[in-house]
Protein 1
Amino acid sequence: MTFKTGHQTGRIGIMAAMPEELQALLDVMPDESVERVAGREFWVGHLHGREVVAVLSRIGKVAAATTTTMLLSHYGVDQIIFTGVAGGLGDGVRVGDVVVADALVQHDMDASPLFPRFELPGLGVSTLSPPAAFTTMVRDTVAQVLSPAALASGGALADVHLASLNLGLPQVHQGLIISGDQFINAAQTCRELTQALPAALAVEMEGAAVAQVCHDFGVPYAVIRTISDRADDDAHIDFPRFIHAVARHYSLAIVEALLQRG
Ligand code: SAH
């Protein structure tokens, strides 16, 4: 697979999974205007001098794939940044940490016995990866944004009060994110998923669909997820409070840093 290389002047698609994350972004875009296409609102404008199209991904693989296709074929973006929250699966992946995907699998894709479990029929692979250099740049940027020094200095993250939420300093992980049309909130399901896909660090509902569309178009993409829950029996309890208090601040700071970096 060859990816086109992003360049400074190109349009960047930003997909937010949560309305609060999108709003945080729109609040700092000076000139955005809304266009309604395919039942979605696309916000076209600039941020830090870069041309940006921001949109709510919508929940689930089909919705996210459609949004991605629109960004690529209707708006012609030449890279996509996806931010959202996810359930933590891997050991040591805690609530408040951030996972940058270097591989994505659709955990509910199963056309066996015609194809091996997880394999994407027609593509002949089960795992898709963004270009390694792009992922490294994203991971390094995220690590810088969430470094202890950056957090201590306030700035964009001054409103995040980790201690009051019983959260430690965020760790940045790079690895496998798995996606499926299911909100995982049972310890037993987590065990089954990690047994089948031991490298999985996080589970969510869109990333691997975005990856598949970007793969088909040959466009680089980043899937960046803040861990909102451990996908276990308490998953639904932690959710809304976490997005408001932490995730939307992280995603804005991360997107801004990525735009400034190139
Ligand atoms: N509470 C939300 C619904 C969230 S659905 C609402 O009221 O609209 C869960 C979203 O967060 C999806 O976008 C998914 O990608 C992500 N997510 C977070 N934790 C998850 C988990 N444990 N399992 C699956 N998806 C999760």
Protein 2
Amino acid sequence: MTPILRSRVRGVGAALPARVVTNAELAHRVDTSDAWIQQRTGIKQRYVAGDGETTASLATKAAEAALRHAGLETSAIDLIVVATSTPDYTFPAVATQVQASLGIVDGAAFDLQAVCTGFVYAVATADKFLRSGSNKRALVIGAETFSRILDWSDRTTCVLFGDGAGAIVLEACESDGLIASPGVIASRLRADGRHRAKLFVDGGPSATMTVGHLRMEGKEVFRHAVGMVTDVIKGCFADAGVTADAIDWFVPHQANRRIIDASADKLGIPHSKVVVTVDRHGNTSAASVPLALAVAVEDGRIKPGDLVMIEAMGGGFTWGAALIRW
Ligand code: ACO
């Protein structure tokens, strides 16, 4: 059998801000309650960046943790892709800030923006670079400080989001291409820009010369979320020639416990195989999936050989899924 190239996960890392904000604390700021937030979303607390903590600093810490976990030197990396909608600056890219902080001077580094689907887009993009043979090892990072684009007087959005970063190291390896062999096996990405008004930020460099605040029609997002993510997940199953039973771990975007449960139920994935971190992290947008991966690897749930499905849906709308043999 002629070997093919596959992108293998070598390491995982995460970084969270120092400060935890509980639902009770938010209830002092806006007209809400711990009971409402938990019942509607499953969120109990979130981390919020403080002075000196930025998307780039969190991304760098997550990257360092992933490299330590992989047992690799920074010089091994020749591609950095950062998924974020909350960069430190309009430019340069967070990825180049991470690159400089790690002392890397070779290879390519760029940001990618697909809001909450950013990490899934970044995994699929890096996978295509690695399988083409152009690059050998990639840091794929999801990093956000959504606290800085929230309207803290809007209870319908400010209770939902948190800050953080997660990273994986992907490495191009020869593979026999079998389903049992490690690496990214399938990925599906989608977008439909007609849904812009349901989830957007009302500012930006070219339109308003401001940063703006997140605006969301939560009910409308909810209405589309389950159908969209289950569609791309089924696409990945079809590409890989497997069914939902084959999955060891389902690691969905952590937006809302009810969306996670409904998606798992629609796919027939038992809740015992679903990694949930929304209770402690809130919705960290592009950071949510790699943060959840880091938690489940650290606590020993995700092990080498496991089949892991990641998925997300977010502003745009964008949505996507990827099937990875660990
Ligand atoms: N505390 C108390 N009451 C609240 C709060 C709050 N924080 N927020 C809204 N309410 C009120 C509303 O005003 C409304 O009151 P009314 O009935 O008097 O008008 C009532 O609660 C019900 O509001 P709904 O919006 O109908 O509540 P719903 O059950 O839909 O839950 C939620 C809202 C949690 C936002 C849900 O719709 C949701 O999770 N949507 C999806 C969000 C999502 O997945 N985003 C992912 C993508 S994010 C990204 O890409 C950046």
